[in-house]
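User: Please fill in residues for this 215-position structure.
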């Protein structure tokens, strides 16, 4: 076989790149989460994500359009992780409505402490596009989980009952407020505690302020 009839080794290798790279979309999201955590939203860039993922500079744009598209997808992933973290705590709590709400609050706060940059992207940044179906669905799922918890507590659908919706708002405001203050280094009397003691304090605050029992 002469050189003209030999297979082009470069052409053979190109199709194998996705196989060796694995799920490129997931890899780009992993890289974008690391980029966001290290550099913050102000210095976040597609070029930095591409370099971190070991792909061409065009790859993130090909999958997500622009940096806001990538951040929107990352925020959607964040909301899925957020809900999973709440479920982690709820699965370890008793099935009573008040204990489930306290557990969900612990999941909320612990997610924020474990993922502060992602938490701020999800709740404090105007970069994600909440008009995107993926992000809207993920964010709505998180909210509806709280709605369902409050419905079990009050016996009324918050989407139809104003008093129950006030309970939704109060629960959300308290959970988010504690998460934000702790991420910012405030509430030092709680934030400096060991995790188990910190969680006990958070659960006690939720119990007292929302009349969920003795805490």
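Assistant: Residues filled in for all 215 positions:
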């Amino acid at each position: 076989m002469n050189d003209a009839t030999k297979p082009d080794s470069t052409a053979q290798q190109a199709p194998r790149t996705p196989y060796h790279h694995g799920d490129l979309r997931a890899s780009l999201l992993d890289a974008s989460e690391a980029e966001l955590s290290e550099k913050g939203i102000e210095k976040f860039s597609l070029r930095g994500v591409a370099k971190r993922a070991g792909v061409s500079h065009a790859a993130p744009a090909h999958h997500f359009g622009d940096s806001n598209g990538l951040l929107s997808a990352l925020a959607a992933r964040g909301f899925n992780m957020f809900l999973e973290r709440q479920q982690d705590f709820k699965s370890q709590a008793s099935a009573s409505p008040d204990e489930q709400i306290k557990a969900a609050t612990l999941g909320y706060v612990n997610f924020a402490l474990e993922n502060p940059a992602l938490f701020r992207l999800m709740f404090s940044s105007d970069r994600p596009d909440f008009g995107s179906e993926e992000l809207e669905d993920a964010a709505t799922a998180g909210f509806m989980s709280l709605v369902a918890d409050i419905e079990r507590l009050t016996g009324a659908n918050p989407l139809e009952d104003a008093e129950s919706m006030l309970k939704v708002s109060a629960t959300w405001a308290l959970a988010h407020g504690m998460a934000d203050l702790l991420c910012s280094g405030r509430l030092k009397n709680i934030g400096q505690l060991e995790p188990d003691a910190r969680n006990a304090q958070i659960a006690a605050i939720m119990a007292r302020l929302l009349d969920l029992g003795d805490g």
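For context: The radius of gyration is 22 Å.
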